[in-house]
Amino acid sequence: MDRRPGPSVRLRLTLSYAGFLMLAGALLLAAVWVFLLRYVPERAFIVPGSTGAPITAVFPVRSSLLHVFAPRAAAVLAFLLAFGLVGGWILAGRMLAPLSRVTDATRLAATGSLSHRIRLPGRRDEFRELADAFDTMLARLEAHVGEQRRFAADASHELRTPLAISKAVLDVARADPDRDVGEVLDRLHAVNTRAIDLTEALLLLSRAEQRSFQREDVDLSLVAEEAAETLLPLAEKRGVALETCGEITPVRGSHALLQQLTVNLVHNAIVHNLPEQGLVWVSTDVRADGGAVLTVENTGERVPPELAATLTEPFRRGTERVHSDHAGVGLGLAIVRTIAQAHDGTLTVTPRPVGGLRVTVELPAADPQRADT
Prior knowledge:
alpha+beta; 9 strands; Helix Hairpins; single chain; Heat Shock Protein 90
């Protein structure tokens, strides 16, 4: 925003300090003058013989006192003005010194340097709290920018892969005119389907991050049942037993996004399971503190804690997930985490000691009064 130049804060503080000091001095001198006027008579009478005067004389005491007091009072006020300006300028500079460091850090951040930190020393006060809050904001912003850069690089790589495969398939088909056309078309169809799935996942992820959705009352238990019914054929095909349980769990959010969240969790739990006789448990619950909880557990191979901590990052897959026939696009849990955060919730991924994962989504429960109305 283009603004007209104005006096600096240091100058205004200096004038404020000097003005307050002048006002205090003037009030003090006024109080002294009132005190003098109260106890000093207007005229003084001199009795003959007391001072050697031949006759009785009358002297104007107050007027004489005014002639003596006024110049000295003016000198005191002038001294207070000069002292206030000089002292106020020094004090204002010392008080605003931390603010200049914040300003310098802000200018560095505006140029793209997010690694700089103020780290203002001293005990906690308003300026220290401002500096600490700014450092926290820079740290979060730096982490967010780094995450976005990694996401852009990973997304570019993932989007380039199907294009490169399509180009290779077409080059091979062009070099071998006798190659089976049906095989080439099937291969291109599979690659194109994966590219479409990846693009749709990226769009869904962007929509969830922007929170561009309408909120409504949703029963999370019904959403879990719908997801289980939808994925039941896949579970039966892979020999996985799917169990759902839970009470009515009202939340407020997007039904479509919450359904996508649940489907992603149940789908992952089914395809990343034991080769046979696997189990998946889906449950919903309302905690005593008013939070709504969706839990999805599955059997499977043991997952190291350090690997489980990275599964919610975009395009991060475990080794067994990459080489499976349901490798996916690497955005399943990342989409779940983003949808949960868009609904002011959290996602927790915990390895089970006997193998598999326990994924917990905690969301704020819907207001019962809102639901009644």
